[in-house]
Amino acid sequence: MRKLIGTLVLSALFSGLALAQSNSAGHTVTVKVPPVLALSLNATDFLFDFTASGTGSLTVGGDTYPLATEPNYLTFLDTATTQL
């Protein structure tokens, strides 16, 4: 139940962010995430090598992600639409 409520709160915040983006050029959004919604990452699952020139992908736990190379990073910056 707590996760459902947390998800609804985050959805409402992101909806507000989408509406706010049409009103001015820049926004700062601060979200306090309760511990029940905390995200835990294992640093060994990710490869950051900006000296690499490839644009390939990496599979972690069955999910495919683009490699953290400089070309992929620049593509992300060019195509990103939401800043969290």
TrEMBL record:
Signal sequence interval, chain numbering: 1-20
Keyword flag Signal: yes
Keyword Signal included in the entry's annotation: yes
Entry keyword set: Signal
Superkingdom of origin: Bacteria
Name the record gives this protein: Uncharacterized protein
Source organism (scientific name): Thermus islandicus
Organism placement in taxonomy: Bacteria, Thermotogati, Deinococcota, Deinococci, Thermales
